[in-house]
Amino acid sequence: MKIKLKLLTIAILSTVILTACGNTPTTDNSLKDIQNKKELVIGLDDNFPPMGFRDKSGQIVGFDIDMAKEVGKRMGVKVTFKPVEWDGIILSLNNKDIDLIWNGLTITDKRKEQIAFSNVYVQNKQIIIVNNKSTISKKSDLNAKMVGLQLGSSSETALAKDVAFSKSIKEVKKYSNNTEALLDLNAGRIDAVVVDEVVGRYYVSKKPGMYKVLTENLGAEDYGVGIRKNDTALTAEINKQIDAIKKDGTSNTISKKWFGKDIIYK
Q1: What is the mean pLDDT of residues 45-61?
Q2: Per the count of CB atoms within 10 A, which of 155, 156, 223, 261 is most buried?
């Protein structure tokens, strides 16, 4: 009986050892795979100006597009942009349908459970835009005023979190999109618009002299490139190239092209 138990114990231990060996992490070839195929496939929502969207000719353009192209050029690979349904984009990444998510992707704790991120390259703020001729220069000037924002946006959440400021406002008018809100601001039907900086700066740059951005904001959120958790070599390379284009001023040039100023996170 003791011999049988001993043999059983040995068998169990052998199984555990073999299982552990079978779970040994494989070599990370993520960067080599990209270099070998000479292509970097970027997943994105192609209807998110100015980060990534289609121009009048149907070409995908935008701030993140130019950033990704520059990184790809320095890596010596072709960059291909693949539109993906946003609610399934992390699944597409983990299924290896795409290599990266590069499209104004906010870094959150929930997403960190599923994927890795590059270093922060943009810190997006919730900014306040007013008419250029307005006497409003700070949040307190909006006491008992009308403020507009996009329904269901991060701006709505940010405003709700700033309880004191929210209570001081006369009314919050909600729009289906930011364009409608800015049109009402220009027409004088509201006094200010709360909007994502990456979106707001873009629209402001397209209408020089029409709007101004207040110095105060309603909080920040970080943008990073989404990468598979095990792709550590590729993550290191993306971080290296982003750092390089920050240091030599290329990212500054790209930022000014789309936003009229440098919004790159230093």
Answers
A1: 92
A2: 155
Residue 119 CA to residue 266 CA, distance in Å, equals: 10
CA dihedral 73, 200, 217, 215 (to 10 degrees): 90
Residues paired with residue 122 on neighbouring β-strands, in sequence order? 223, 264
Whether the Cβ atoms of residue 30 and residue 232 lie closer than 8 Å to each other? yes
In angstroms, the Cα distances linking 266 to 122, 133, 251 are 8, 32, 11
Instruction: Give the long-range contacts of residues 110-117, CB within 8 A, separation 24 or more.
Output: 111/226, 114/90, 114/229, 115/90, 115/226, 115/227, 115/228, 115/229, 116/226, 116/227, 116/228, 116/229, 116/231, 116/232, 116/235, 117/224, 117/225, 117/226, 117/227
Residue 7 has pLDDT above 90, yes or no: no
- What is the reported pTM? 0.72
Return the residue matching tokens 């949040």: 139
Interaxial angle between packed helices 250-259 and 197-206, expressed in degrees from 0 to 180 and rounded to the nearest 10: 70
How sure is the predictor about 16, in pLDDT bands with cuts at 50, 70 and 90? very low
- Other CB atoms within a 10 A radius of the CB of residue 69 amount to 16
**Spatial distance between the Cα atoms of 193 and 213, rounded to a whole number of angstroms:** 10
Return the structure tokens found at 118. 């590059």
78-86 mean pLDDT:
94
Which tokens hold the place of 7?
């043999």
Tell me how far apart the alpha carbons of residues 228 and 94 are, in angstroms, rounded to a whole number.
6
CA torsion 158→163→164→165, rounded to 10°? 30
